[in-house]
């Protein structure tokens, strides 16, 4: 699995030739890949797991682990799926964005979107 993922990452990195700022594109590509590997293989310290109950339904549980990578990352699980997310700057709280998922946390409350154009789930840390 790692070998396949690495090939995909290399292909994406090599697409930096199309970028207006090739050195920045390549540097960002390496920075994100290193953070991903550190989080996925638990190579750095993590906070959590944090369990969130969403929409008042005990069956709608979201589990998040937050990693001290650069940039900061989270691995968030919902059902039988997981998503690697990167921290984005916000005015308040912490917003983590994955490929089609997001988690916006503030004071033990979170808004989670799971899947492309998925509905917002309103969650509380337990």
Automatic annotation (TrEMBL):
Keyword hit for Cell membrane: no
Highest taxon in the source lineage: Bacteria
InterPro entries registered for this protein in UniProt: Lysozyme_Inhibitor_LprI, MliC, MliC_sf
UniProt GO cellular component terms: extracellular region
SUPFAM superfamilies: YdhA-like (SSF141488)
Keywords: Lipoprotein, Membrane, Palmitate, Signal
Keyword match Acetylation: no
Pfam families: MliC
Domain C-type lysozyme inhibitor per the UniProt entry, residue ranges: 52-120
Protein's name according to its UniProt entry: MliC family protein
């Amino acid at each position: 699995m790692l070998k396949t993922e690495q090939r995909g990452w290399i292909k994406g990195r090599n697409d930096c030739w199309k970028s207006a700022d090739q050195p920045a594109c390549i540097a960002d590509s390496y920075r994100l890949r290193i953070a991903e590997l550190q989080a996925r293989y638990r190579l750095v310290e993590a906070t959590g797991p944090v369990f969130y109950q969403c929409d008042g339904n005990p069956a709608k549980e979201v589990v998040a682990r937050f990693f001290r990578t650069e940039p900061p990352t989270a691995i968030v699980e919902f059902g039988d799926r997981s998503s690697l997310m990167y921290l984005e700057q916000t005015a308040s709280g912490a917003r983590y964005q994955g490929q089609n998922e997001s988690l916006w946390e503030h004071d033990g409350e979170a808004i989670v979107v799971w899947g492309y154009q998925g509905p917002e789930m309103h969650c509380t840390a337990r």
